[in-house]
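Below: protein 1.
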Amino acid sequence: MNEESRGRSGSNYKWVGKVTRRPDGVDKVTGRARYGDDMKLPGLLHAKVLRSPHAHAKILSIDTSKAAALKGVKGVVTSADIPDHPEMAPPYPPIINDLHDISRNVMAREKVLYDGHAVAAVAATTEAIAKQALKLIEVEYEVLAHVLDPIEAAKPDAPVLHEHLFTYGVDPKPEKPSNLFRTVNGGRGDVEKGFAEADVIVEREFSSEPVHQGYIEPLACVASASEDGSVELWTSTQGAFVARALCAKLLKMDIAMLRVTPSEIGGGFGGKTTIYGEPVAIRLSQMTGRPVRMVMSRSELFRASGPTLGSRSHIKIGVKRDGTVTAADVVLWHQSGAFKGSPTGRAMDTFFSSYTIENAKVTVHDVCVNRPKVAAYRAPGAPMAAYPVEMALNELAEKIGMDPIDLRAKNAVQDGGESLMGTKYGRIGLNEVLEAAKNHPHYAAPLGPNQGRGFALGYWMHGGGLSSASVNLQDDGTLSVATGNPDIGGSRSSMRAMAAEEMGIDIEAVKPIVADTGSLGYSHLTAGSRTTFATGMAVINCVREIMEKLCALAAKKWDIPGEDVRWDSGQAIAADSHDLPPLTLKELAGMATKMGGAIAGHSEINAGGAGAAFSAQLVDVEVDPETGFVKPLRYTVVQDVGRAISPDYVEGQMQGGAVQGIGWALNEEYVYGEDGRLQNNGFLDYRMPVASDVPMIDTVMIEVPNPNHPYGVRGVGEPCLVPAPAAVANAVENAIGKKMGSLPFSPPKVLKAMQRG
């Protein structure tokens, strides 16, 4: 696809912004790439986990003696083998990693808190023996009442999950425990004054259900403990350093005694940013002295790993006849799952942050329920914050007779503005995104019978943070680029392109690798759309260090002052006054070890200067009037990508977010029975979109470079999901002419809405 058809203007760079051969492509298409389930070691044992059949129950006793006596069983683990930890003390950070809770999520202690909660684990010589052993473990439960809805769970008479949990931030401190962990508030201005100034007010309620990331590769790991106390762990993770820190702290090991190697990752989307079976596999390996492999089945993934949160919300927005939004107020209830800590901060920062609204207020309640502890899912907290806002804005546009995009442009936040939570924007591309969406042929295309068009806008502030990199110059002039971030969306390609661009060499001379935790300084998760931005800056720093050293080497070789040498297009060039021929990278690399030593660049940074990104989406759907079935017909994503370092990957990210949004909006949800047990714990019953469910997805990349990055990078992986469920939902409402509020808009719900008077 050429630059014009991608909606891109092109650049003067040789490698940045160009489609190049994928550095990991051959291994993946040939099956040579090693994923979490591919690691095999001599003497390997197979681990299986016994899981609770109850949503909420006291554990009265566990008898593992029969399982331990079974021939072929080498080890059995319960919560007694996993260290307990004191509760995290307030104040609480935005992302809560409370070892007290993690310990109980990895292995239930006093109570089981959701269907699928781990109770015990065995390691055996074969999977069949391990499964047989699980049936021999005897657990006595006292079944308790359960609660799944966050509003119901926050009521005073609800079954309490944690007797030690008192609502945080309330004065005076409550005397009774509650499932309501905390309530956070934010806003600006005077909303009552703003509503008094409004000509039209929309007030609605919305809800969404938990949805799973649906990564193709299951969670898998292999742990191998040595007699000296050291442990090697291979695992499918989005953050090897985070996995190392959590496992070591949880098991009370010295961090240096645990080395984590991230495997190739078959999808993550945020769902592989924490730990599940890894500590259990480590403990079983320590007990048995043999490597232990643990792979979760698809059913286990649905029942016991973290989906995104479910939500309930109430929104009220007022607008003048000219389109000025005067006030906005929203209350949101998050299902955090069995343990505290949903992404409340990200939700609050998403509400209304695409717009300049003088009077706005947000309240988010974080509530524990008898469901799996939520995990990140691509812009955690943001899609379900954008959903009620974008639905209400479309209704307001309809009521005042204004074009939906014009309404947003009227209120769009501008360069130098700030988010609702006070994050300052620099140069942003929101105006360009809205203009491109309105001028796109899709927006003016005619619609047929039973068809509707939806529009929504999304915002995401990508992360920065801690990243490390090491770039080594080889004797033949090639570069090895080692980073600590697993490649889940093309980071090898972007690191290679930026390194080659900086160095001025052919891109094929750069070999990117993902290193283990013993080889580099700390690198945070591959998450938050941070990797190309933050880790990319670390790589650029490394290459620039190498260029400085090469210029010094050339000056030494020529016996001239160092300031008389510059680096350009892959070679050292002497000032004109010296009349010396350039020295190429290959020539300098060959003489480096003979004239001082190997040359490498290292960088450990805490990257700041992240930039806001905006994504606008147009969706056409057709609704079957007899069944309520919704068929997406056309989809266009317009997004400010800053600078598309590897445009083919960026296009894939934009399309992937749209596909997931279709699933969130139309099909995907966790379905529980009255007993609190998950009923659709496999892909046959959990309805994710497949190729036949989605249309071709057009992408328009708007490139307004982020001034805080050498190549203008903005995060691209998450903004594209933020508005997607709302865009699809708006299209359905437009097609049927009725309002709906409860995601997903499945055929029975749509049919019921159409049949309303």
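Below: protein 2.
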Amino acid sequence: MFKKALPVFPAGHENEMNVLAGFYAEVGCCADAILRITGCTQYKIFIDGKLIHHGPARTCHGKFKVDELKIGKYLTEKRNFIVIHLLSSLCLNYASAFAPAFLQAEIENCGEITAFTGKNGGFKCVILEERLQKVLRYSFQRPFTDAFYLNQINSKFNTDPENSGHDEVEVALLEEKSLLPRDLYYPEYPIVKGEKIIKKGVITAGKFDEELLRWQSPRWDFNAYPLEELQCNVLEEYFSKNYEITEKCSLPAENFAVESGKFAIIDMSKELTGFINLEVEAMENCEIYVSFDEVMNGETVDPLRLTANNIVKIQLEKGEYSVQTEEPYSLRYMQISAVGGKIKVKSAGICRVGYGEIAQKFNSEDEAEQKIYAAAIETFRQNTYDIFMDCPSRERAGWLCDSFFTGRSELAFTGKNEVERAFLMNFIHKDGDFPYLPHGMLPMCYPADQANTDYIPNWAMFFVVELEDYLKRTGDRALIDAAKERALNLCEFFTKYENSDGLLEKLDKWIMVEWSKAGDFVQDINFPTNALYSKMLESAGKLYGKPELLEKAEKIRTYIRENAMVDGFFCDNMVRNEAGELVLSGECTEVCQYYMFFFGVANPQTHGKLWKILCEEFGPNREKEGKYPKIYPANAFIGNYLRLEILYQNGLYDQVMEEIRGYFLYMAEKTGTLWEHVGDTASCNHGFASYVAVLMLNIRNK
């Protein structure tokens, strides 16, 4: 895919974590100019200071996708600079596949390669030490957080790299890479400014709680710098202070001052995802913290609510700056704290990262429905980039099961399934088995590395179920055929757990039904898991012409129908008693009932009485009304979605719309996005949740 470019990286830094390298090349004006580029772990591309792209599109271990960017429209001067920030994480995480860092890029200008990575290829390389290297991890699931030291010289790099005070370094030539085409849309990166300042306060001395660092020390499955080696410990620095509100207000979030020892909290009006983007003037040498979160339940922002390190440290020498983080973050509230030195904030906002505008219109004049629909669209946009993500904040990971729902959203909102295809192909492109997993098993999220050897057997089953759904939506038989080996190897993997009745018993690892009490009843035989297993076998049987798998699926469903009922409800599990006999536990959850109807174990004809109870007496208000207290309630993921889907499948459209209001309006009003749980203790922006808008479109746009 490249004509001259070779993979390179700054010599001597190949084995270091969290290195930010800068590459730049001069290019003339040419309307047909093309930049071909790939790399690892991630890069940002600027032309004359403007961000034009963030990549590469993530893919499987051992392969790298190539971006081919038409850049002629940005080359407005006779002499232009293309500047690339290459961030090497080199740590195990859930957001990307582990691989040594490199950059491979070339510029084709009017048919000629005018610059390329390699020896004497025209691209110069520097180390951008103004982004501190030895800092804390952002979260268990993602690499390192951002911390900067900027002055009037090094801050010129994006616009005037030759005069930014960085010394050129030698690059090492690396081995040839296995390359793939991007095969995805190219997003834009609009900047959204904060809406208003809602609070101001003062910073006073406090006492740091060492317990806050308990998860930051390196261990075998968590690459991190030892605490004693850190260039800054932002958690200790931030939480050794108290932040007290002195004023509640509603002021413009631009051209405002923050005095030394004070802070201001900005409301973006809804949750957004992207690079934090600040235009600031340091009136003197200063140090600021930008802390942020999706919600604000207390007086100030809680940057650790999400078990992620939502704090960016910025040190500035006197002068004016444009500051943009290297990593994307998610927030509604942004707290700017000047712990030393006065600053003037010209603007504060987010350079958006995600899917572009959605043209699909929603035919409803109901204000509540419009709010929920808009929140679902925002949720989709922020979780759909190069893959489908669970959340754009704590993890940015591509989880199976979530993708089953988001894939349906993509088609409904965009008319195509290119991101879903890329997501599924990542599992298929991988050569051989996945790191840390037994033969046949799939990662619970990917591209990623689960070095702790954990996996979710249920989510692997959803891979095959999604394949069948994907084929119905797209007709893409080529992908289905390419996935055959993965799908059938997975079916074979589960056979060692089948008991004499054909049910899965004593499954290993993280058996995930949903985030609710259902997680307590997963052994020895979990009926929701077996209902899903029957659907996986049925999907594989249909896709690949395997009648024996169809027979196994029906055998499981028959067993559950005949053996799993307790007082009119499906019981969650069976356990072995002291005599080794299987007995029902007696525990019943709401989500278990929905699994049975969603995956074909039950239907309104075979289980009419239970269906009537679920339709008429369950729903958003069931707990509040005290009905069936012995049936443990479902959570948003995935129980409430299964409920809405089976109601929709049975034509109860008015009820679906009413329950959507009950389940999601409060979320839409609080963050402008839809959540992982029914409460805001976890992610308030989860990709699967966008699926609610698909139901709404299907009902209101009929």
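The chain has a mean pLDDT of 97.
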